[in-house]
């Protein structure tokens, strides 16, 4: 028996291997979303076409986790080996001076309602991706999502739980109440949820994505937010509609290239953690207490660095990735330091979803999108079915002089990030991502280690016991006491050893860490894919 199968069995991993295909593959957190992408590939579409179809359908199938009123980030590997990033992150309001919030007696940007909203960027990013590499029109690719909005999709256990959790907030907005609390009640699992107004908006956006930024939908959105007291001018809305391909952030690890989404995403934090662990983890047993300690310490240092000096639009992070800075940070970790982020405490929460698509030409898409918290700001643009994000409230600080202090026309810091891996010749090796707030940069680092340091397949990687440094540097958790959350499958001996290393360990249920990782790998000209068993997803090949 190989070392891989022995160690995997010891962690209670599901007894199934990855999905296998040669023509193309998709993976997402919802079966209907994966099926939509697989159908596009089977019908001759490429990976970009599949990802665009999947993204739109996920707005219907996973309404608490993403939407047209949210943000999105994408990595694309083209058949010629080039890799591009597409950013879809909107600006905060032009009138969003710190004094605006303080004059209203606020100590933080609100997490709910109009004041929590940043202009959405998802549609802009998807439109730019479509213009770059799609082979089919958006009306065709989004037709299944529009049909699902009109015909209804069955309510899942996840969506019902999201509605129950946010019932009071959803009931206060007429748009969310009509859709998610029909007749004033929570839908049953399996009951169809109809989103006809959203379907009409998607039909409009498929014909002209710019309508959300400078057309009728933009005017309606800005008017509704201004009436509710948010200081939007409309100009920041128009500016948020501009998205174009840009170079991905890259990091060499174990002799291969990891491509990451650039700021305002925290992809640089994955690069930093990789730099702090490269050459260390291969010499340690897979998920040993020593390996977990090293990755946890690297994550804590990255969050401390992020809070200390990073804001959207600055280059502070670049200095953290220089060889000298990484060497100094490695020395701190080698000496046993566990850095701590300190700031005032505020409440927690959040939700996101992601997907991966790869085609037979080697084109690969890693896409992640979100409303920030579950159902975002819990407000809709009247008459459109579009639920708006609360990214400003989640991502911007109200801390005097901080680089991430809320300011006019500033993008708040993000949790969303995605990755691709290519070899020295530029050939695709892996594509993946995971939702999970500040867990993302940690779990993505863990996924990369499972795949690159230990040679595990996607199914083993996405199901491996997960651990999470908490808090990160999200505005909603700053100042909480530091802890290391671990799934119980890590085992009592490892958990005790981590406590002896100085971690305040909180033990979670065997599958309760959160996240929903998606990974597709290339092996011997075949595609191997897997979707995280912690949610309802599936990987499908054609």
Written description of the protein model:
By secondary structure, the chain is of the alpha+beta class. The chain is 37% helix and 17% strand. The strands form 5 sheets. Strands 1-20-19-15-14-9-8 form a 7-stranded antiparallel beta sheet. β10 and β11 form a beta hairpin. The two termini are 31 Å apart. The model is unreliable at 1-7 and 343-349 (pLDDT under 50).
What key phrases describe this protein's structure?
22 helices; 542 residues; 21 strands; 7-stranded antiparallel sheet; alpha+beta; globular
Topology:
Layout: H1 3-9, E1 19-21, E2 24-28, H2 31-42, H3 47-61, E3 71-77, E4 83-88, H4 98-102, H5 122-133, H6 138-141, H7 143-151, E5 153-154, H8 157-165, H9 167-172, H10 174-180, E6 192-193, H11 196-207, H12 211-214, H13 216-227, H14 235-239, E7 246-247, E8 249-253, E9 256-260, H15 267-277, H16 289-309, H17 316-320, H18 323-334, E10 353-359, E11 364-370, E12 380-381, E13 386-387, H19 391-395, E14 419-422, E15 428-433, H20 439-453, H21 458-463, E16 467-470, E17 483-487, H22 492-500, E18 505-508, E19 518-523, E20 526-531, E21 538-541
Parallel strand pairs: 17-18
Antiparallel strand pairs: 1-20, 2-10, 2-21, 3-4, 3-11, 4-7, 5-6, 8-9, 9-14, 10-11, 12-13, 14-15, 15-19, 16-17, 19-20
Helix pairs in contact: 2-3, 3-7, 7-11, 15-16, 15-18, 15-20, 16-22
């Amino acid at each position: 028996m190989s070392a891989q199968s022995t160690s995997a069995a010891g962690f209670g991993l599901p007894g199934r291997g990855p999905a296998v295909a040669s023509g193309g593959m998709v993976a997402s957190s919802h079966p209907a979303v994966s099926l939509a992408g697989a159908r596009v590939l089977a019908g001759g579409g490429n990976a970009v076409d599949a990802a665009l179809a999947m993204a739109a359908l996920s707005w219907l199938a996973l309404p608490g986790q993403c939407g047209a009123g949210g943000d999105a980030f994408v990595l694309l590997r083209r058949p010629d080996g080039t890799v591009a990033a597409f950013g879809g992150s909107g600006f905060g309001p032009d009138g969003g001076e710190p004094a605006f919030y303080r004059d209203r007696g606020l100590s933080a940007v609100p997490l709910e309602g109009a004041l929590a909203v940043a202009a959405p960027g998802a549609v802009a990013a998807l439109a730019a991706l479509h213009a770059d590499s799609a082979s089919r029109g958006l009306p065709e690719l989004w037709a299944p999502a529009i049909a699902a909005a009109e015909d209804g999709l069955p309510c899942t256990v996840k969506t019902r739980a999201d509605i129950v959790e946010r019932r009071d907030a959803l009931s206060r907005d007429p748009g969310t109440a009509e859709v998610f609390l029909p007749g004033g009640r929570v839908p049953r699992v399996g009951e169809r949820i109809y989103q006809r107004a959203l379907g009409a908006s998607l039909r409009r956006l498929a014909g002209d994505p710019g309508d959300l930024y400078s057309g009728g939908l933009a005017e309606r959105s800005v008017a509704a937010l201004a009436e509710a007291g948010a200081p939007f001018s409309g100009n920041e809305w128009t500016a948020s509609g501009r998205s174009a391909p840009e170079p991905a952030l890259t990091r060499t690890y174990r002799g291969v290239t990891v491509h990451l989404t650039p700021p305002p995403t925290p992809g640089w934090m994955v690069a930093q953690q990789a730099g702090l662990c490269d050459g260390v983890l291969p010499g340690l047993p897979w998920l040993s207490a020593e390996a977990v300690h090293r990755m946890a310490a690297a994550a804590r240092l990255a969050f401390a660095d992020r809070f200390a000096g990073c804001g959207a639009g600055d280059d502070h992070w670049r200095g953290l990735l220089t060889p000298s800075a990484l060497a100094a940070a490695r020395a701190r970790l080698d000496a046993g330091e566990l850095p701590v982020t300190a700031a005032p405490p505020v409440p927690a929460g959040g939700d996101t979803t992601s997907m991966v698509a790869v085609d037979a030409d080697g084109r690969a898409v890693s896409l992640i999108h979100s409303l920030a918290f579950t159902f975002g700001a819990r407000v809709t643009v009247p008459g459109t079915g579009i639920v708006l994000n609360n990214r400003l409230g989640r991502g911007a600080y109200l801390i005097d002089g901080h680089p991430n202090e809320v300011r006019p026309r500033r993008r708040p810091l993000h949790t969303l990030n995605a990755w691709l891996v290519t070899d020295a010749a530029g050939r695709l090796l892996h594509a993946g991502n995971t939702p999970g707030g500040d867990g993302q940069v940690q779990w993505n680092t863990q996924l990369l280690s499972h795949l690159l340091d230990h040679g595990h397949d996607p199914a083993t990687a996405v199901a491996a016991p997960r651990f999470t440094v908490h808090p990160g540097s999200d505005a909603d958790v700053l100042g909480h006491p530091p802890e290391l959350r671990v799934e119980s499958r890590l085992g009592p001996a490892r958990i005790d050893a981590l406590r002896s290393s100085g971690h305040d360990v909180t033990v979670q249920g065997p599958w309760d860490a959160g996240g929903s990782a998606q990974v597709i790998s290339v092996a011997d000209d075949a595609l191997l894919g897997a979707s995280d068993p912690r949610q309802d997803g599936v990987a499908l090949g054609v």
